[in-house]
Design brief:
alpha/beta; UDP N-Acetylglucosamine Acyltransferase, domain 1; 9-stranded mixed sheet; 7-stranded parallel sheet; 24 strands; EC 2.3.1.79; acyltransferase; Hexapep
């Protein structure tokens, strides 16, 4: 290859590296600047937003903020939709419509659509793409397009300490108790008791904890061992390497 062509290729590669660094640095800056917190709400004026709560940039569709209350230390990932009411600029009264407790986590691309009240309890974690709605389409009239028929609404209540797996769907009228696990891709309607694991579409209880008998059916994996106080990251890595050597 001629020398001048090698030089041209090297310059092109250098420009691409520089451009890549500039783009990534700019994106990191926008993520920081565009995040929403109690101190920096931007254009969003929530009914309440607690200390330590952060909505990552870019946000999804957000409207009806006046009727949305976010607790403390919530993590709202990128492209999460939060809406109160069927459309923007409605007067929804004096009470909040969408309430997140303290420490709630909503994974990337999740949607919480609150046409009537939705409450999510403290320390509930949601994986990516979770869909929670208090409104569903009706199809009573067989001669009218489903999308043009008036929807049905019912309140949704999710208790504290729940885990909603990736792609879970929570339908209107659902009531989840404390520390409920919803398997990925499940569709939940109706009432789910405390300390239950549900899976499927529609979701069914597949495991439940009772004070007298523990988990039934029994868990197939051993309980995780808590990390001792004062354990350093280096010590943890050493233990992991030791465990791998013992299994080899």
């Amino acid at each position: 290859m001629p020398k001048n062509q090698n030089t041209f290729s090297s310059l092109t590669a250098l420009r691409r590296r520089i451009a890549g660094r500039v783009v990534h640095a700019g994106w990191r800056w926008m993520q920081q600047a565009g995040a929403v917190t109690a101190q920096h709400p931007g254009r969003l004026r929530f009914g309440a937003i607690g200390e330590g709560t952060r909505l990552a940039f870019p946000q999804g569709t957000v409207f009806g903020e006046r009727w949305i209350r976010l607790g403390e230390h919530c993590i709202i990932a990128e492209q999460v939709t939060l809406t109160a009411g069927m459309m923007p600029d409605l007067d929804l009264g004096s009470e909040p419509v969408l309430v997140l407790g303290n420490g709630v986590v909503l994974g990337r691309g999740s949607h919480v659509i609150a046409d009537t009240r939705i409450s999510i309890g403290d320390d509930t974690f949601c994986g990516p793409g979770v869909y929670i709605t208090s409104t569903n389409h009706s199809y009573d009239d067989p001669h009218e397009p489903v999308g043009k028929q008036w929807p049905r609404s019912a309140p949704v209540e999710i208790g504290p300490g729940c885990w909603l797996g990736t792609g879970a769907v929570i339908l209107p009228g659902a009531r989840l108790g404390r520390n409920v696990v919803v398997a990925a891709g499940s569709v939940v309607r109706g009432e789910v008791p405390d300390h239950a694991v549900v899976a499927g579409a529609p979701a069914r209880i597949v495991r439940r904890w009772e004070p007298d008998t523990g988990w039934q059916p029994p868990l197939r994996t051993p309980a995780p061992v808590p990390i001792p106080d004062g354990m350093t990251p280096e010590q943890l890595r050493g233990l992991a390497l030791l465990a791998e050597a013992e299994q080899a």
